[in-house]
Design goal:
Four copies of one chain form a homotetramer.
Chain A: H1 3-13, H2 16-21, E1 24-29, E2 32-38, H3 52-68, E3 72-83, E4 92-102, E5 106-114, E6 120-134
Antiparallel strand pairs in A: 1-2, 2-4, 3-6, 4-5, 5-6
C-alpha cells in the first residue's frame, strides 16, 4: 500500500457514515479519490429522489480522502454543491476529483458526481485547511 | 393543521432519509422550519466527529421544508456550508432558518445549525428555485 | 453577426463598468465567452495586488454574456469565487467558461480566470435564473 | 487611533480600487467594518443596474478590513454573493459585517449590503485564512 492508501484506509475503517452509505474506494492517490456507491430506498426524500445530503456526503468523503492523502491532516472550511439532475433509487454514483489549487495551507477541489450513465448529477466545490500535523500510520 | 404544516407533513412522511437521521419537527411555517436531531455513532467519520454530510443533510431538510411551506414546489439550486465546530456523538442539533430574500422565482436562506449548548456548529446558505407548481394536499 | 454576438454586443455597449475594466471580447457564442483585460494600477488593493473585485467582475461579466447569449434574459442568483494566486499590475487576465448544466430555468457555470502564463488565478462558479423573456435586438 | 484603525488606515491608504469606488469608512474595529459608497454611472452594466462586481467589491473590502483589524494578516480563501435586489445609479450602499466564527487560522463572515432605504441588496459570505504574520504599523 502507498502512504496515501494507508491514510485513506485508516480514515475509511473508522468512518461509520461512509460505510453506511456503502461507499467503495476505486482509486486513491494524493489529491485523487474515485468513489462509488449505490442509492438505496432509505436515502430518498419526500420527492422520491435521493436526499441532497446523499450526493453531498459522497462528495464530502471524496474531499476528505483526496486532500488527506497528501499526508497532512486537512479540515473542510467551506463546501458548496449544485444538484443538477435528480438521483433515484438504484442509481450508481461515482466521484471525479479535480485538485484545482494546492498551496501550503489551503487546497481547492472540484468534485463531480456522476450517475451510471456518465451524466453529472452534482457539482461540488470544497476548500480545505491543511494543518501542520502529519498523518502517522503504523 | 395549517397548509404549511400539511405540506411539510406530507414531505416528511415520505422522506426516508430524514427519518433515518431521526429528525423531529419543532416548528413549521412559511419560510420557517425548526428541526432537531441527535447524533448517533453511525453518523461519525474517520476523525470520530460527525461526518460533514450530517449537518448538511439536516440543514438541507430545513431548507426544503421552509421553502416549500409557502405552497409552491421549490428545488435547491445551490447550497453551501461551513462547518465551524466539531460535532460529536450524542450532540443534539437544531436549526434556525432565516429567509433572507423571497422573490417570485428565487428564495435565499441562511440556516444555522446549533448544538445543545447553543453554539453554532455550521452555517448553511441555500438558494431555491420556486417552480410554478403548487402543492395540493388533500 | 450571430444572434449571440448581437445580444452580447448590445449588453457590452451599455456596460460602462466592463468598459472601465478594459474588457475585450475574444469569442462569444451560446454558453461561451472568452474575455481579456489588463490589470492597471488603479485596480490594486492595500496588499499591492489586484483587488478581489477585479477578477470577480471579469468573471461575472463572462457569466452574464455567456448565459444571455442563448437568447433568454438571465439573472445571476448565486456566485462564488476562490482567489488562488495573486494578480499584479500588468497581468493580462482571460476567462474560460464551462457551462456545466443548462435546464429550462437554471444554468450553472464554472469560469476560470487565467493570467498571461496560463496559470489559474481564480475559480468562479455562477448560477443564473433564465427568465421567460427573450432578447429582441433589432 | 486604535490598532485596528491604524491597520485599516494603512490598508485603505494603499487601496487604489477601494478609493476609485469612493468607499468611506464609517466604523472599524476587530471583526467589524461599516463602509459606505455611492453608485456612479460608470459602475453600471448593460441592464442599467450596478454591475455585480460593485457590491462584491464593497463587501470584499469590508471582509479584508474587518478580518485584518484583529492584527493578523488575513487572506480571502472563498467568497460568495447573492444579489437579491437591483442597485441603481445614485444608490448609497452600506455594509454590515457579522463575524460568524473565528478560530486560530480561519474566520467566517456574513456581510450584508444595504441600500439607502435599509433594503438588503446582497448577501456575501467570506472565509479567510489567518496567517501567522502580524501587522506592524509604525
Amino acid at each position: 500500500m502507498t502512504n496515501a492508501e494507508k491514510i485513506v484506509n485508516f480514515m475509511f475503517t473508522n468512518d461509520a457514515f461512509s460505510q453506511w452509505l456503502g461507499i467503495e474506494r476505486l482509486r486513491v492517490a494524493p489529491g485523487i479519490c474515485d468513489l462509488r456507491m449505490t442509492v438505496r430506498n432509505e436515502m430518498l426524500n419526500g420527492f422520491a429522489i435521493a436526499h441532497g445530503g446523499i450526493s453531498y456526503s459522497l462528495a464530502d468523503t471524496a474531499l476528505a480522502f483526496a486532500s488527506n492523502a497528501h499526508g497532512l491532516k486537512c479540515y473542510s472550511v467551506e463546501t458548496s454543491i449544485s444538484h443538477v439532475k435528480p438521483v433515484v433509487e438504484g442509481d450508481v454514483l461515482t466521484t471525479v476529483v479535480e485538485e484545482k489549487s494546492l498551496s501550503r495551507r489551503i487546497g481547492v477541489y472540484h468534485i463531480t458526481v456522476f450517475n451510471q450513465n456518465n451524466e453529472a448529477v452534482a457539482f461540488f466545490k470544497g476548500t480545505v485547511h491543511r494543518s501542520e500535523k502529519s498523518w502517522e500510520i503504523a
